[in-house]
Predict the 3D structure of the following.
Amino acid sequence: MRQIALINHGCAKNLVDSELMLGKLIQNGYKITLDETKADIVIINTCSFINDAEKESVKSIFDMINAGKKIVITGCLPQKHKKELQELIPEALAFLGTSDIDKIVDVIKKITKDKKTRYEVNENPEYNYPEDVKRQQITMGASSYIKIAEGCNFNCGYCIIPQLRGPYKSRKIENIVKEAKELAQKGVNEIVLIAQDTTSYGKDIYGKPSLKELLIELNKIEELSWIRIMYTYPSFITDELLETINKLDKVVKYIDIPLQHVSQNMLEAMNRPVIDNKKLIKKIRKLIPSVAIRTTFIVGYPGETEEDFQELYNFIKEMKIDKLGVFEFSREKNTKAYKLRPQIPAKIKKQRKKQLMELQQKVSKEINHKLIGKKIDCIIEAINSDGMVVGRTYKDAPEVDGLVFIDTKTPVTPGDIITVKITGAIEYDLVSTF
């Protein structure tokens, strides 16, 4: 039996797709290795959200070709470039689109029999979560992502995701709860709910947004300690949802809300909801007093004036967001923003990003220093070879936010949730004792 490896690129949603493909292969008797040098076939699950992500995926593809591997290219790159990608990379034995991962076993069977290229890319992607497949987790630790929906019905000016992932499709509450229970029984202590927009969850199958109802059911799972929500959409954050988050003991008081900009001009140009973001942030903080808020912004969107940028800068300075990321606008074909004028020079985009990140460093350091001397719940991520214990507070999502370095003589294991005392702080990370 030939061994198969998988290289994953991109977001957490891609990671779940990769784990589903591996699960399907294992269920059909294939051997999986995490070391691509030992594999006969390498699946490369690609990302195409921005240019840098594409370059990273392409590098992996050619690294594996140069290593003499049989390769299967899946995910966003084949979906975006379609037959053009097949012409550019004739060495690949198969191409699967974003909604075609259920075909992975059939494709692997065929390419092991002959060298004919298989092309399985649906021109109109429509994702159906394979509920009969048990994910084979690539990274097993304290936390695990759960995809509650796929696709997107919005049409933001900069974003190609609706074309790559198709319309919004929710999973049923009972299926998500079942998966969460299975993960908890494996030792996962924190589940992280993901979708292109989690606040639209359930609208397509229940007739109304149903994230509140999902959270109530997940909160009943005894083995789980933390439930974290990512990617909420600003105009769908209701008082009822915020009150539910505040009330449920297992739902961490953390709101991830990609605002993208605050200038009315820019929000209109981006086809984003034009709302009073200051009012929204204040409402979230009022209804969830201990909340940590995370957001992302885009700088250098076509037409962004110095006044637009200054408005964004002042917003960040005033509102003191707990966690913040900044992206330079990436021009993508087949998006509204591709043809907009004027396009902002790369030098200005870099300068604006630098200014915002330097400001946020000061904000974050100030917020962290206020935690010194206080006690806070923390989930254990890892224990380093030197004995240093590494964790995250409830204010920090895995992979994107800060860490806590814990000085302790008490034995702990990854997944434990403990209360630590903060003794030191830097820009993004904390030092503590237990």
Notes: The chain has a mean pLDDT of 93. Residues 346-369 form the longest helix (24 residues). The first strand starts at residue 3 and ends at 8.
